[in-house]
Amino acid sequence: MTHYFKAIILLAASLLFGFFIGAYGLEYYESTTFKPWSWSSPPVVMNCYGPELSNVYLTRGVDYWATRGENVSFIEAKFIKSACSEEDIAGFIIIRKAKQRQLSSPTLALTKRKTTIMTGMVSATIYFKPGAYKLEHIIEHELGHAFGYMHVDAPGHIMN
Asked: From 10, 41, 53, 106, which residue has the greatest number of CB atoms within 10 Å?
C-alpha cells in the first residue's frame, strides 16, 4: 500500500508541477509577444451592446484593422436576442455593455479572449462601460485585443 500511495502522490505532484510550468510559460509567451494569438478564419463581429451602438462605430473600428491585414466575415449590427444570450460564441467577436461591477473604476473597456494552443483564437467578448464606445480609438484598441494583439510600450500606437 505504501508504494501505491507514494506513486499517487508523485503523479499528483508531477501533474501540478507540469500545470504550473505550462501556465507560467503561456503567461510569459503572452507578455513578451505582440500578437500571440490569431484567428484561423475571419470572425463575425456582433453587436450585443444594443441599438445605441451605431454600426458606424463598429465599421470604423473594423476598417482600421482591415487596413492592417485583419479581416472579419461580416458585422452583425442587429441585436439578436438568442445569440446575445450566450456568453461567448466560437468564431465571434461579441460587443457587450458592461454590467455595473464588471469593470473596475478607471477601466472603460475590457476584452476577454478564449484561446486554445492548437487553434488560436476561439472567441472574444468586448465589454464597454456604457457610452465609452464613443471615445476616440477605444473600439479600435479593443478590437486589437480581440484580433489577438497585446499592449505595447510605444506612445501613439493604438495598442499603447
From this structure: 53
